[in-house]
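We close this part of the discussion by returning to an individual protein. Part of our work consisted of pairing the sequence of a single chain with a tokenised description of its backbone. No coordinates are needed to read the tokens, only the vocabulary itself. The amino acid sequence and the backbone structure tokens for this protein are reproduced below:
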Amino acid sequence: MKSIGVKSGSPLSSTNEMSVNLQNARRTLPLRLKRLEFEDPLDTDTLKCKRPRLSLPPSPGLAPCLRPLTQSPNPGSAEQHCVSRIGPYILLEATEGTQTYRAVHSVTEAEFTCKVFLTMCGFYQELIATYTRLPPHENISRIAEVVTGERNVYVFFERCHGDMHSYVRACKRLQEEEAARLFGQMTAAVAHCHEHGVVLRDLKLRKFVFTDRQRTKLVLQNLEDSCLLKGEDDSLTDKHGCPAYVGPEILNSRHSYSGKAADVWSLGVVLYTMLVGRYPFQDVEPAALFGKIRRGVFTVPDSLSPRAKCLVRCLLRKAPADRLEAGEVPLHPWLARPASPSPGNHLSPRNHSDQVVPDFGKSEDDADRA
């Protein structure tokens, strides 16, 4: 039985791909690694090693990050995937894109989420290095097991019950009491990452998934896009993220910017979207969208409580230095003592036809192109 180590010294970069700093990453969580002499074939053409980057959406449209997932154009995608057996696990249908599958343990019948990486990519250990660096936290997803085959590496996580992006779309918008309970868990996860030298970069609603059917417990998932810091300096230079969530300093800066402050801006977009049901900045034309983000001007509905308005504005401040730090967010009065919504905020959090969340074409993942 061998443990997976974290490679250091070689940045994760190539032409038209993002770089992730994984140097000097230390292991804190041992991972079990099994070597398979046999594995059922998967369609390796659909298992691409790609690194999303900030760019204009492939096609114009309102709020691309709140669009539903679209069917993959690759003919070898989910509908053609055959059931595969990987060690004690049975891989079923693809759940998100072509690299993530629903899996069942053949002995315990427990359900898992499985992410598949090509061994030929050579950097799968770097992609999952963040999971090994972070100490355990109740609101951050952990790797259950890693199994290696001749062609692919299979990383198993505990099963989730949907993500926050889909939940907000279904609910239209959340009432403040529920939003505060869920957002508090999100901020706890981000603060834990920042405390231990991890900048998330591509932070958005879809990164948070529910661990229970009642949808009360959240964990932060998909840490492969994160950046491991070498010290206290969180300066970054790459442009990475979903357009609707990107901070103005990333669009304006020709040099470096604070990665942690950019994560806090993204948290502000997350909170605004949960409470209002739309993004604070959106436009049909990508150039116009980025122009609005650069100006940093947005409106907060009067229906929100004063404390909710205050927290939104503390997170979405144009100057990065003026924003709250992630560790300070849970101390805000709206989270410490959630207020009841003002009389104008009378919408039910679910199934209310008068409040519509943007629902256009492509998903937020489709917007993360280079």
